[in-house]
Each structure stands twice: as C-alpha cells, then as structure tokens.
Design a protein that fits this description.
323 residues, alpha/beta, Metallo-beta-lactamase, Chain A, globular
C-alpha cells in the first residue's frame, strides 16, 4: 500500500490485487466533517490491512468516513463497499446503471454458470475454458461480500461536492455501462476511473449483462472526453495522466488497430478462436482468459454492427466471417 497526496484534500491509496494487474487506485477526499472514499478495492485480507494502514497514517477513524462513492461496479472497485458500509455506516453511491448491475451481478449472482451458459457457449467457450471462466467469476463474487445493504444513486450531468471542490459527474460508458467520472473544471482535474489508463488499455468487454456495442460507446466517450481541458487525470490503475489528449489519441489508435486484427482473424471461427489468435493464452491466468474473450466479443460485435463482419450460428456457437 502506498499513500500519495495528489492535490489539496485528495490522497491516492494504492491497494493490492491478486491478478497480473496487481493494484487498484482508490482515493480519499478530505471534507469539512470527515472523508469521502472513492472506490474500495477487493474484499480480501491484503486490502483490509492496506486500508487500515492508510487510516492509521492519515489518523482516520471509521466514523469519519461520511460517504462511499464508486466509479463503477467492477469487483476491484466495488468489492469492499459492503464491508465499509458495515464498518462506517456511510451511505454508498453509484450511478443508477451501476447500482442495478451490482444488484444483478453480485447480489443476485446473475453471472453464475446456469444463467450465463448460453452467452459463453455462443462465444465458443465450452468445456474446460467454461469451467475456468465460471469458477473465476464465483471467486470474484466472494471477494465482493458482504454486499451493501443499501445503494443510492448519483445522476450523470449533475454536480457533486467532494473534497472542497465541485465536480461535474460525467457518464463514461464502454469499460462499464454506467461508469461515472468526476471533473473539476476550475483545477482541470479529473477522477477518471478505468476509462483512461496510462500504460495499459482499459478492458472494453462484452459480458452477459452488457448493453450493446460497448466498444462503440467507449470510442464515442473518448471523443467527448477530448473536449475537456485536463491538467491531471487520476485513474483507477497506474500513474496519474498528465498528457490527456495524447493518451486519448493513443487509445483510439489502439482500438483501430485491434479492430483490423480481429477482422483479419475472423474466418468462420468463434470468438474464443479469434481471442486465441490475438492474445497469448499461455501467459494468462484464469482472470485474464475471461477478459480476453469479453474484449474479443466487444470488437467483433462492433465490426458486425458497422458492416465489417457477418456471422452464422451453428450448433449454439457463433462463427464470424468477413463480408
């Protein structure tokens, strides 16, 4: 765990993750009467210990956490929300879409195998790979427990006061349907969640509950975010971003290249086969396999919607091919 003071009243807390992507950035914002927590990390012992060390260093008691705000419901951001709600009594806030997804996916276990079987099979994920995907999903769900008792919502397009600043709440879909970012126009500062990361590209995936064309919505979001004047962006992973416009351009270029790769690899094969041709599965753990297939599905869907690919369904598996 590391604590980094970012700007007046803002601290970045770097928490460990048990994945190849080995950390998540959460934030504490000092209020007049306590603190706001932005994102929480996975609920496992290493994160609990890291948060306690951060509290000790900043001389924070649980009662001083006045509210918990989440950028989105992915487990590395949502995982300790229920834990901290029980510990602090603080209200929890997400966007309406992310609150609904958190209820469906984590509380109601909407991604368990019997509910998600047809989705993964259509992608060509069967047998051992399906067992791997569903086992990892259940493991992640365990790391989101206990679940919050109540969730309240923040509406995109409104303004939220945090840490002595007024933040514009911006809907930024693609990585997550209802992800929200927070922009302080006065200081040209943005809390950008997982929408823009510095050294890695955010996963843009098609999951069982994802709204159509996440990649199209992500690329549109990048175009909108390019209109912001940003001095410093504080992401969910990696180091702060100082060259905002340049990084947005790099992400757009990456996905243009990846779309061409996916189209070239789609010769009457399943999404799983395309993923295996694009990514080195030998290097992947269980967590990365899920993300590779989901990202492939998002790119293939975007190509289909824009006329670059067609598909046929054979024996419950979708096969993609060029026009």
């Amino acid at each position: 765990m590391t604590i980094q003071p970012i700007s007046e009243n803002i601290y970045q807390i770097r928490l460990p993750l048990p994945f190849a992507l080995n950390h998540v950035n959460c934030y504490l914002l000092r209020e007049a009467d306590g603190w706001t927590m932005l994102d929480t990390g996975l609920n496992w012992v290493d994160s609990q210990q890291a948060w306690q060390a951060a509290f000790d260093e900043l001389q924070i008691t649980p009662a001083q956490i006045r509210r918990i705000v989440l950028t989105h419901m992915h487990p590395d951001h949502f995982g300790m929300a229920g834990y901290f709600q029980m510990l602090t009594g603080a209200p929890l806030y997400l966007s309406p879409r992310e609150a609904a997804l958190a209820q469906t996916v984590w509380v109601d276990n909407g991604w368990r195998q019997e509910l998600a079987h047809d989705f993964w099979q259509l992608a060509g994920v069967t047998g051992g790979v399906l067992a791997t995907v569903t086992a990892q999903t259940e493991r992640l769900r365990q790391l989101t427990m206990p679940h919050p008792m109540t969730m309240q919502t923040i509406t995109p397009g409104t303004t939220l006061a945090m840490g002595g600043r007024n933040w514009q709440v911006i809907h930024a879909p693609g990585h997550a349907d209802g992800q929200i970012l927070f922009y302080d126009a006065t200081d040209q500062l943005v809390l950008c969640g997982d929408q823009v990361l510095m050294k890695i590209t955010p996963n843009i995936g098609r999951w069982p509950t994802t709204e159509p064309d996440p990649l199209g919505r992500y690329l549109h979001s990048l175009t909108q975010l390019a209109q912001l004047h940003v001095r410093l962006a504080l992401p969910g992973h990696g180091r702060p971003i100082e060259e905002w416009q340049a990084r947005l351009h790099e992400l757009q270029t990456h996905h243009a290249s990846r779309l061409m790769q996916m189209a070239a690899a789609a010769d009457s094969v399943s999404a799983l086969t395309v993923a295996q041709r694009i990514f080195n599965f030998d290097r992947f753990g269980e967590h990365e396999v899920r993300f590779a297939v989901a990202e492939t599905l998002a790119h293939l869907e975007h190509l289909v919607l824009n006329g670059g690919l067609t598909y046929t369904d054979q024996a419950g598996i979708r096969l993609y091919q060029t026009q």
